[in-house]
Design goal:
alpha+beta, single chain, 121 residues, 3-stranded antiparallel beta sheet
Length: 121
Amino acid sequence: MSKERFLKENLKVGEKYAGLLLGKDGMPDQHIFLLPGEAESIEWAPAKEWATSIGGELPTRREQSLLFANLKEEFASAWYWSVEPSGTGWAWYQHFSRGDQYCDHTRNALRARAVRRLVIE
């Protein structure tokens, strides 16, 4: 299937195609789509709820790396939450001007974007 046909059949209004994320540790390969919209100045738990409310999920750290590589221009030069916790009360996030990833308290107010995954079977 051509890329144009794939996108026509799978890309929803307002979404951006981020690319293919290869499966790891037995997980399947997945196509990653960046959903429209952004939450600003939001703690981690409410950010996860927000992402679910718009039909997506916060991206994983690997997905954030893919987003940085392929859709960096869709992000402000700021910190964005990932879905990945790092111990109790901590979670990972990424800066979208440099690509740095760190973990910090989940009560900090950062930005959030949501992704949708299409599993390749």
